[in-house]
Amino acid sequence: MPPFIPPLSDPTKTVPALLSERALVSFSVESLTQFLHGETLIPQRRIRALLEQDPVFSNADKPFLSREKMYVRSLEKAAKLVEMRKRNEWSEEDMMVAMRMIGDSTPQILHEALFIPTLKTQLSDEQQKIWLPNYAQTELAHGSNLRKLETTATFIPETDEFEINTPTLNSMKWWPGALAQTSTHCAIYARLILHGKDYGVHPFLLQIRAPVTHAPMPGIELGNLGNKIGFNTIDNGFLRVHNVRIPRSQMMMRNSKVTREGKYEPAKNAKMNYSTMVAIRANIVRNAGFALGQALTIAIRYSMVRLQGGDRIPSLKGEEVKIIDHGMQRFRLTTSLALSYAMLMTGRLMFEMHRRNLKNVIQGEVGLMAEVHATSSGLKALTSDLATAHMEDARRACGGHGYSWCGGIVDILTTTLQDVTVEGENTILHLQTSRWLLKTILAALKTKDLSAVPAGLRPALQDAHILDQERATIVPGQPVSGETLIAAFWHREARVLQEVVARILKDGAGEEAMAKSQVRMVELSRTHGEGMLVRNFFEALAKEEQTLVSKGQNPTKGFLPVLKQLAELHAIHRLLEQAGDFTEDGYVSRRQVVWLRERREELIDGLRYEIIGLVDAYDLSDNQLNSAIGRYDGRVYESLYEWAKYGMSIMEKGSQGGVLGFDEVLKDVLAEGRRINGVVVAPKL
Amino acid sequence: MPPFIPPLSDPTKTVPALLSERALVSFSVESLTQFLHGETLIPQRRIRALLEQDPVFSNADKPFLSREKMYVRSLEKAAKLVEMRKRNEWSEEDMMVAMRMIGDSTPQILHEALFIPTLKTQLSDEQQKIWLPNYAQTELAHGSNLRKLETTATFIPETDEFEINTPTLNSMKWWPGALAQTSTHCAIYARLILHGKDYGVHPFLLQIRAPVTHAPMPGIELGNLGNKIGFNTIDNGFLRVHNVRIPRSQMMMRNSKVTREGKYEPAKNAKMNYSTMVAIRANIVRNAGFALGQALTIAIRYSMVRLQGGDRIPSLKGEEVKIIDHGMQRFRLTTSLALSYAMLMTGRLMFEMHRRNLKNVIQGEVGLMAEVHATSSGLKALTSDLATAHMEDARRACGGHGYSWCGGIVDILTTTLQDVTVEGENTILHLQTSRWLLKTILAALKTKDLSAVPAGLRPALQDAHILDQERATIVPGQPVSGETLIAAFWHREARVLQEVVARILKDGAGEEAMAKSQVRMVELSRTHGEGMLVRNFFEALAKEEQTLVSKGQNPTKGFLPVLKQLAELHAIHRLLEQAGDFTEDGYVSRRQVVWLRERREELIDGLRYEIIGLVDAYDLSDNQLNSAIGRYDGRVYESLYEWAKYGMSIMEKGSQGGVLGFDEVLKDVLAEGRRINGVVVAPKL
């Protein structure tokens, strides 16, 4: 096992640059950490401390491994997790926490393959739906469009079995994680064929590998997709099935059922599936916030240790400055930090919404479902887009060291990049949100009943001219209130909506009209999501303020005033980034744009000595960060050097024990060079 | 050697979807290819045809290799190139072409290490400056700031030697390509110390490895940095030097010199270095265009083969549609295509500018130099930012297959990502451009002599109110002329400039003022570069029109009208993407924004059946693309499947010949699972 190399941070050896930064933070980082993580903080820390005693969980070797070796290491980590779970009697929730705390991805499906009987009998309905489906759904030529899947499960009444087939090359299952090498069973999505009639796509449990030998079962072909841009610990694979029989009982019958006679019984509560999707997407939103937070922890700490430039500034007398003190660097990282917090707050509120909604659904009330589901779609798309874009920006802000795996951002960035595609491709999700919004509005316009329309959009629907009269109430030299900013985002959304509705109505208001307006519809969903991020941030802080007041604490002290500045910064920055949407109808004037820019600058300057606290509060350990430049103690350069030397010690060697390639190729090339050019030792210039 | 797998495209087997697309293109793709590549097209094709007969140049294995094996393969390719060069009597230029045509990166430095004597005697001055410097410059804790490098070269008069030292951990050389394992010599940048006096940083030739054994020379420590996000064929490394003596003749004395007595003779024509930088940056601009073109060739071909969605559109009767026919997909890819062509046209004009300027410089006229150099800085930054952002967008537009290496975009994207950092980090370059622009303007305002100010900015400097009166002349339902669009970008630049100048003047107009305005200065450089891209595209087409007319050809036929549409689309799209800058002062009105959006849509629709021709014209071979989904014949799915199977055949195996990890870890875990849960074969649900 690799040691924890470079040695984990020793807080007593923290570099002076970070010590002095931390001394200036105005709030208790621990309080903010508790606020961000809530009740999961204690188990997170307990479990992480346990994990980080065992070198199997060291991520130090990851920057140097091949895909094959990454996979082996992820298996080792998975195996150890299983062992620790048993030894420590972890709950299912503890296990989930552990998988988050290791700072790496393991084939969880392995876990499912081991424990399917346990899972089936012990997990709640909801957990089963989160963890069992999704395997072996996507086909080679078919993505998110379930209706077009070609795999079949044909009922054979004589033997009470289904016969599974992937009849064409294009219907081969393609992409499922852990399918290529790890899994013994999978849930396969196939068209249910009963007495020649197609009942649509349903999930079936399929054994794909034999016990002991692990060889593919008869009729099963399995394979590996090869390297990906990231997530290479996981063996994404393909699966072809040729005439494989399974007992009828292996259809997953929690929802729809097939009787012994081959009679179809449709699902009773299909809405539950939507509720699950909301939870998964809320998770992606929250992950987007933390993944960006991880990149920013690295980039901000590094920017406080790294010195560069400043030669031209006479007052510095030739001293180099921390790169965080270059205006552009501070601007990029502080605005990204505001975005990360906005996403965390929205993730938090989405979970609350999901829990409320789930309670309703269980009681048979599905009124909120469509809105909640549609909103979660667009937010998943918006936040995964924004998070990955800003993570990439943070990577670039680290210069060359950001390009290297030992910088630490590469791994988390390339892993998070899958979130723009999985669980619903982002463009398709935006279109879902927009379609829901437009249908709601078109129906409301017809019936004059606006109750289903989001409140902020109602005034403009009641009076079309109201948007032309509205003006933002931004004045110079003052903070911009949450109300003002929220109103601006509602105005913008209503304006985009007005244009899109006019277009759709002109084109006949049907699906063809919507298909013609995709670009603007995606824009509409984005504006909807941007508004949510802005509102939710302010709302979450208002709630926390109430909580503090009810506990008798002073809300004008501590982290809350700092987060309020961050919320204002987030809203102003998002507005300025899309200023055209706000200025094109004169809602925000040219002078107001200038004032907003000044206010943004003021906020960024005001947050200058808080930002180290804001990233420390994410509470990410050195092993989770796995970064030479983002470590807690700031010993960047020693760490880069030590880590590179360790990496060399585990590189694959050549036949003579030297660097792979030297004896094999380079030696002869160099010899030939010497033969042609003479010995090039100490050439005379 | 790997076969060319999947087999290279067979045009006679092209899928019907691409055949029908190609049949509809209105112009000769071959003519456009000739226009894009100019006189290099013939050698490019000749050399590529030679290379692609030899499986050593197959890139088919690359998606599956570890870093160590990628390096070995790159050595094999480099060795073969050297051999072919000799056999085919390639010129230096042919060799450069060959390195571009292999669709992979080899350690060119190997080539230099072999042929330094040849290079030194045979290359022109300019070529020497392009290919010799840049090695061993960056230090661990010091990036672009040459002045802060700590490595020393101290003259020892007694022995006529220099003693080289990297005195601290932070001054260790860090990052040079091919330094870790390949190079035998390097050019090391060190502070020249003569009789105790520091003369600043100069380059020295240093032997780092012994002949035959390839072991580091005494006093030399070398190492490898580990994996990077891309470019892993190249062994970026580090270098520490402890008291290493070299003869005085190993100082590189083409510019500054040191005599036997230790007397310093400064360089005579330092401006030449700037001219070289312009050439390198023009190359990055052009590469940005082609790299984005490579990603778009893949994404656009794939989007014409891939079917998805359309279920909701009644007129389609359940048929799936090519994803290019989804409005959002077409929008993303067509606007990116316009950007790629804009960058190619600007790269072309920059090379012309560079050649003109170089001629001037040689004749002692350096008047243009500052502008040309500053402009090239900002353009390098702008185009590398935009190209990589749009390449990533193209990758996402390919869904899951874009995430996989076999999709082909991952490799070119992660390789191109280094361009935002190397040859001047982008933020620093933008600031250089802005500083030059501001200094020019501030001087002109003082002297009232505007001759050094770019022409489009002069009117606003002569009369500050002119910007408030200007209005864009965009009318509905008509094409927007190049003049109108160029004027809009000048207006925007003048407006940003006005604000920045006011700010800087208010703050004292010195370096401290500029340091305080970094964010807006970067913005200023971006607007400057955006304007150049817009103007250059129209200008390059106007030139081509003249050329065609002078040859007696009809410029209203062929590719020229199509490229004109693309130039209009590019300018309109860039304007709309930053609409706030154009609408905040009312220069572009709200109605005009709507008309521009309509015109953009019209242009995208009009180009629908040209885009396959526009990407085919880049003339990239299947082996260069190295993509299962972007191949010329469109056989996407067969190729993905065949390629994955080939990849499995070269994966690293476990001790028992199976998948690495099964015998080592997974077997025991699964056995333990069976022991705990019983055999999970065919569980009854």
TrEMBL record, chains A, B:
The UniProt entry, under InterPro entries, shows:
ACOX_C_alpha1 (IPR055060), Acyl-CoA_ox_N (IPR029320), Acyl-CoA_Oxase/DH_mid-dom_sf (IPR046373), Acyl-CoA_oxidase (IPR012258), Acyl-CoA_oxidase_C (IPR002655), AcylCo_DH-like_C (IPR036250), AcylCoA_DH/ox_N_sf (IPR037069), AcylCoA_DH/oxidase_NM_dom_sf (IPR009100)
Q: Per the annotation, which location comes first and is thus the protein's main one? A: other
Domain Acyl-CoA oxidase C-alpha1: start-end pairs: 274-438
Keyword Oxidoreductase tagged: yes
Entry's localization field: Peroxisome
User: Binding of FAD: at which residues?
Assistant: T138, G177
Which Pfam family name is an example for this entry?
Acyl-CoA_ox_N
UniProt keyword annotations, A-Z: FAD, Fatty acid metabolism, Flavoprotein, Lipid metabolism, Oxidoreductase, Peroxisome
Q: Where is the Acyl-coenzyme A oxidase N-terminal domain?
A: 28-138
Its needed co-factors are: FAD
| Catalytic site | E423 (proton acceptor)
- GO molecular function, one example? fatty acid binding
Tell me which domain of life the UniProt entry assigns to the organism this sequence originates from. Answer: Eukaryota
Which residue numbers delimit the Acyl-CoA oxidase C-terminal domain?
483-646
Instruction: Give the matching Gene3D superfamilies.
Output: Acyl-CoA dehydrogenase/oxidase, N-terminal domain (1.10.540.10), Butyryl-CoA Dehydrogenase, subunit A, domain 2 (2.40.110.10), Butyryl-CoA Dehydrogenase, subunit A, domain 3 (1.20.140.10)
GO biological process assignments: fatty acid beta-oxidation using acyl-CoA oxidase; lipid homeostasis
- Keyword Secreted attributed: no
A Gene Ontology term for the protein's cellular component: peroxisome
Q: Which PANTHER family match?
A: ELECTRON TRANSPORT OXIDOREDUCTASE, PEROXISOMAL ACYL-COENZYME A OXIDASE 1
Q: Which family does it belong to?
A: Belongs to the acyl-CoA oxidase family.
Q: What's this protein's name?
A: Acyl-coenzyme A oxidase
